Amino acid sequence: MEGAPLDPERAAEMARRLRANVERALRGKPQVIRQTVEAWIAGGHILLEDVPGVGKTTLAHALARSVDASFRRIQFTSDLLPADLIGSAVPELQGGRPTGAFTFQPGPLFAQVVLADEINRASPKTQSALLEAMAEGSVSIDGVVHRLPAPFLVVATQNPLEHHGTHPLPESQLDRFLLRLRIGYPEPADEAAVLRDDPAATELPRLAPVLTADDLVAMRAAAERVKFDDGLVGYLLEIVRATREHGGVRLGASPRGAVALRRAAQARALVDGRDFCIPEDVRDLATGVLAHRIVLDPRSETIGRGPEESEWLIREILDGVAVPL
Q: Over the stretch 228-244, which tens digit does the pLDDT of each residue have?
């Protein structure tokens, strides 16, 4: 019956179709695609931090094509202005003369899936404009609030090895991303298949929607109903507190990070067809949800382990927190 709540079994089937469709364009990365889908179901934004050419743009395009949703790609540069993102009020003309009235002209941010390419190349002012949109689902122009289309997802990319001409994202903006992922290089067999078939060029243009935007909204509502019992609350909070008390951490995960991990775990359970969470849902997603939300102490011995040092530290914390029975 239309309007009836979505049951977990049906939601899991919808998620399976979505993942399978995206995998046609991005080969050999099922776990990355799974976590991306889970983040979207959880209502969170995604930061893809990896070297060029591994499929970040392909992943965002495939997601948008797999759901009947609008898509825009924005190339972030040092001269990009907030108005270039959110739009501006333009004067109305009548007979070639201004009438004194203004009409809002939406910018490329008004799409359901937005790829923010090389986000750390934009100025802090432009990054702040994006932050408001991510946090509020709306933008303000001359005191007027304009709602963004729902569901709204930002997939941002950045190259972790390039520093010239970049502006590192502040902690407040990093905290708005539910998940940070690395795609990584493909396995030899998968890379050979990519060389033979070139799915980004052959499969991606042919992808058709397998879900509607309303389907995704229903899946988000179903994820919010997934049970998260008190034992798991205690387990999750132990992990979050450990990030604040670890000797190698200067700034631990925020309460928003704890909420994000719970939401991600609920989405993971739903994708698996369950209406309840288990400890593995929390543990499997903790690194992707929390690693970018902590600031390491520069005096710590963990510094120097490479770009994955915060992820290494979260895994160390997970090994030290007892899993509830």
A: 999 999 999 999 999 99
